[in-house]
Amino acid sequence: MRALVTNDDGIGSRGLSVLAQVGLDAGYEVLVVAPATEYSGASASLFGATEDGRLATERLAPPHLPDGVESLAVGAAPGLIAFLAAHEAFGPRPDVVLSGVNRGPNTGHAVIHSGTVGAAMSAVTHGIHGMAVSLDASDPRHWDTAGLVAAHGLRWLVTRPAEDGVLNLNVPDLPAAEVRGLRKAPLARFGAVEARVDTLDEPGALQVSYAEIDRSRDAASDAGLLATGWATMSLLRAPCFDPEAELPELDRL
After folding, report:
1. Cα–Cα distance between 78 and 119 in angstroms, integer?
2. Is residue 250 part of a domain?
3. What is the rounded (10 degree) CA torsion for 25, 133, 31, 70?
4. What b-and-e string marks burial along 83-104, b requiring 16 or more CB atoms within 10 Å of the CB?
5. Is residue 224 classed as helix, strand or coil in its secondary structure?
6. Which helix (H) or strand (E) holds 151?
7. pLDDT band at 194, cuts 50/70/90?
8. Regarding beta strands 96-103 and 2-6, do their DSSP bridges make them parallel or antiparallel, or are they unpaired?
9. Shortest CA distance to 69 belongs to which of 93, 26, 33?
10. CA spacing 20 to 30 A to 82: which of 6, 90, 167, 186?
11. At CA 57, angle to CA 53 and CA 62, rounded to 5?
12. Which residues form the domain of 206?
């Protein structure tokens, strides 16, 4: 069994090593392939390949990578990395893609923009198990807590068909003993932040700003539970066709 570990924070993030160890402990052969630079907000983008299809790769390793784990930095978005792995670009096709551990939460409907979630979603659309893991801090301290939650999530995930969806985990940046537990959670209305768009005096110019939301407004959501010390788990469905939708068909145009 093979596990591909990737992220959107880039090859220099310790979160890669956390998930590499989770994969090793679960009995997987682990390969780390991560973006050479940060790709936060890249969603499942296939950005990175040049016109002739070439990608720059370099043998680099994240901090604290377990001994014996091969690691590559690639000039590509995490969604493209998962896509390439599905087509055996880095050796045999992986059985699971572990994405993260992200610095900062990936909650709410904003997960559609997340490169961390995007890599796992790209995997699932190719029939590969996908899991995204995030820590609720921009400069996390309790990486081991994320590893414990990820190990629990992985054990559950691989008992189900890969096509069921991405398992999205969010973990408080707390010692494990201080985490209240792990709960299934619906997605918050947006996420950890909200965007505001303003027009400027200059014709055609716009300014986008972001501000943290009051998570208590949606206390039962993934964002709300996370803010009160719970780790959360949400199953995200890959793009799918709805056969029940009544769509306005035409016999001819």
Report:
1. 5
2. no
3. -90
4. bbbbeebbeeebbbbbbbbbbb
5. helix
6. helix 143-157
7. low
8. parallel
9. 33
10. 186
11. 140
12. 2-236
CA 234 centroid distance within chain: 12
d(CA 85, CA 27): 19
Q: What is the number of structural domains in the chain?
A: 1
**Residue 55 burial (CB count, 10 A):** 15
**Encoding tokens for residue 189?**
């209305």
Q: Which two tokens stand for residue 70?
A: 């091969």
Residues 167, 153: contact at Cβ < 8 Å?
Answer: yes
pLDDT tens column, 64-100:
999 999 999 999 999 999 999 999 999 999 999 999 9
In a domain, 71, yes or no: yes
Find out whether 192 and 104 touch, Cβ atoms under 8 Å.
yes
Q: Any idea what the CATH number is for the domain that residue 137 is in?
A: 3.40.1210.10
Q: Which of 174, 227, 157 is nearest to 3 (CA)?
A: 157
